[in-house]
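To assess whether ligand presence alters the predicted conformation, the chain was also submitted together with guanosine-5'-triphosphate. Input:
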Amino acid sequence: MAVDKAVPLCLPDNHTWDAEEQCIHINEGAPRNKLQLCEEGLNILKSIDHSVVVVCITGPVRSGKSFLLSQIQNGGRFDVHHGTTSKTTGIWIASPECTVMRNGHPARLIFLDTEGLGSLNTSDGNEDNTWERKLLALSLLLSSYFIFNSQGTPSYDDLLKLGFLASFSEFVKKAKLPQRRGRPTPHQSNTSLPDFLWLIRDAILQPELKNKPCTWSNYIKETILQNRNASSPDQRNQIRNSMIDTFGEIDAESLPFPSIDRVVIQTLDSPEGISNLDPTFNDALQHITAKIIESANVKMEGGKVLKGRDLADLLQAYVNVLNTPNGIIDVESAWDCLTAAKEAESFILMK
Ligand SMILES: Nc1nc2c(ncn2[C@@H]2O[C@H](COP(=O)(O)OP(=O)(O)OP(=O)(O)O)[C@@H](O)[C@H]2O)c(=O)[nH]1
Ligand SMILES: [Mg+2]
């Protein structure tokens, strides 16, 4: 099943997806209580009988995430909005009819767009302060390639936006990961957690280290992620340590302004806007797209490459736990339970 327009995969329970009209209805009088899976999005995952490469984007609200994800792929389109109200709610999915080869096998690309971090004006006035962290825990568990999108020269404030990583363990008991030192490459690893790309938007300055030009990747690693006092329990260090524990590769790339023309920026998602994109933006976008399509790994769990329908099963199990008060997802046992259930099912079918 290929979908040209993105559909919701997971919404707050005060939102309803109208599949016929292809729009969201919001029960504004009701608070957000639970995560709610959406049939249409879930069916995309269930219909995929290939292994999957899952690219997910997160980052501050209104920072061009949906536009970027729409441009990266050949098809699947995420809604872009030009006002100050946050647009994307929950997690949205698109999976254009496009396979990539991984270890000699075809794998299907899946793109997940997430609700912006730090939104002050969600359309339902969300006041659940655990919502963001639960959604991010889920996004991390689903993805094999995690893009953190930020605008302008990265700062410690941007690092703090990744603060949810330090509280990841509130919601998730991680699978046993190999130690960082001597850790296998992502291609050999059984880990279920993704590679990380810090994507710097509207970048104009040249990154430097000791007054010499460097790559954004080295800049991020040697400045913002450099832990100068490992024993200090401050929040920055907690986040840095969590990043090292959580991700495989850590990389960074930048994109310049899409245009200096305000009208172009405000019509970016239209054919005219796209045809007026600055050539340097287009070149950088092409480079980043190629990098993601070539290097993003297949999603693995328990040493096994996951198919779309496996991921759908896991997603349902994860959401059930996150909707339970104080529920903690045990990644390893969730997978073991599902594998055991499937083995039992195939045994019954064989009999
Ligand atoms: N300056 C700038 N604006 C951009 C860029 N990419 C998209 N935009 C504009 O930023 C605005 C928001 O774009 P979206 O893609 O909806 O942003 P988002 O991060 O998905 O927003 P939320 O879903 O609300 O968190 C739109 O007006 C876009 O045209 C960019 O690289 N630089
Ligand atoms: Mg968006």
